[in-house]
Automatic annotation (TrEMBL):
Keywords: DNA-binding, Transcription, Transcription regulation. Residues 172-232 form the HTH asnC-type domain. InterPro entries: AsnC-type_HTH_dom (IPR000485), Dimeric_a/b-barrel (IPR011008), Tscrpt_reg_AsnC-like (IPR019888), WH-like_DNA-bd_sf (IPR036388), WH_DNA-bd_sf (IPR036390). It holds the Pfam family HTH_AsnC-type. The keyword Transcription applies. It comes from the Bacteria. This is AsnC family transcriptional regulator. The keyword Secreted does not apply. It comes from Actinomadura fibrosa.
Length: 325
């Protein structure tokens, strides 16, 4: 990944795929004014280098699941093994090592009592703090501005897919149980490949995928490394805010290039964000001049990300990958 450099067409392609992760390359190429083969080759190169990939992920607000951020404070020498064990669980994503190993931040789907109690009994774990995700303020339709600023308004309009969802609950079935894990690894997998993974006909898979998208139960996102866009320092940011100000603060920050994600949570902090900056000086300027100056912000805790054991949709590696410094 370190040898990859994005040019203007690469950035346009990634922006286009964030708008519609399964858009045919022919459609993308037409809007970008280039050849189909060129667009396909660019995406294959980025994916092979580990620089970018499209992931298909269920929207837990539609499927009835709940997500929790769990902060695990531990002794640094225990962090690698604990992060690896958590990354191998099918119900976790974003297993992040913070502060040089003094803390882990884990996003867990429907955590059970056994997991939380087991973490509390793990040697060298100092504390476990679970916080339920109440509302994400960034999703398929409002992604990190750092990778969604390469297209013109006309190009965005031509590529933007109509978002589905009526607000109702979607009941997942046996086909979904086989289809969703395959899409979480490769959101652009071809229908024959998805049919083999699901053990069903190609037409059944095509029909179910369309149903899930129309219901808003399945979203597609582009996973990239902020370093490719010049953001070399990453932090988990926990914000305490005045009552009644969480939505306003989150809405203000969600449009900033430095904010890759922000959501409302339970617990001492009302908001959690993933902050990306060019360097530590840039982080200080943003936290002090932008976040600290917002009406309603009462306190902030920024913890540097030092490694990833697992990202959203990723198959975990044996060892945590180093984060940007």
């Amino acid at each position: 990944m370190d040898s990859v450099t994005l040019d203007g067409l690469d950035r346009q392609l990634l922006h286009a795929l964030q708008l519609d992760g399964r858009a045919p390359f022919s459609r993308v190429a037409e809007v970008l004014g280039t050849a189909d083969r060129t667009v396909a080759r660019r995406y294959r190169r980025l994916r092979a280098a580990g620089a970018a990939r499209v992931l298909g992920l269920p929207d837990v607000r539609r499927t009835g699941h709940r997500e929790w951020f769990v902060r695990v404070r531990c002794l640094p020498d225990a962090a690698p093994a604990l992060a690896d064990a958590l990354a191998r669980r099918p119900d976790t994503s974003w297993v992040t090592v913070l502060a040089g190993g003094a803390e882990l931040s884990v996003l867990v789907r429907d955590p059970d009592r056994a997991l939380l109690e087991g973490l509390g009994r793990t040697p060298h774990v100092l504390s476990v703090q679970p916080c339920e995700m109440l509302r994400p303020f960034m999703d398929e339709g409002r992604a990190w501005p750092g990778r969604t600023s390469a297209l013109t308004a006309e190009q965005v309009a031509a590529l933007r897919r109509r978002r589905g969802g009526t607000g109702g609950r979607v009941v997942l079935n046996e086909l979904d149980a086989r289809l969703l894990p395959a899409l979480a690894v490769d959101g652009r997998a071809a229908y024959p490949e998805l049919a083999r993974a699901a053990g069903r006909s190609e037409s059944a898979v095509r029909r179910r995928l369309a149903e899930l998208r129309l219901a808003g139960a399945l979203q597609f996102t582009v996973e990239t490394d902020p370093r490719l866009f010049g953001y070399a320092a990453s932090y988990m940011l926990w914000l305490t805010v005045a009552p009644g100000r969480a939505a306003a603060v989150a809405g203000a920050l969600a449009g900033d290039t430095e904010i890759a994600f922000i959501g409302a949570v339970t617990g001492p902090a009302a908001l959690v964000a993933y902050l990306v900056c060019r360097d530590a000086d840039d982080a200080f300027r943003y936290l002090d001049g932008r976040v600290g100056a917002l009406d309603g912000v009462r306190g902030q805790e920024a913890v540097p990300v030092t490694a990833y054991a697992k990202k959203v949709g990723s198959v975990p590696a044996r060892r945590p990958a180093r984060a940007p410094r």
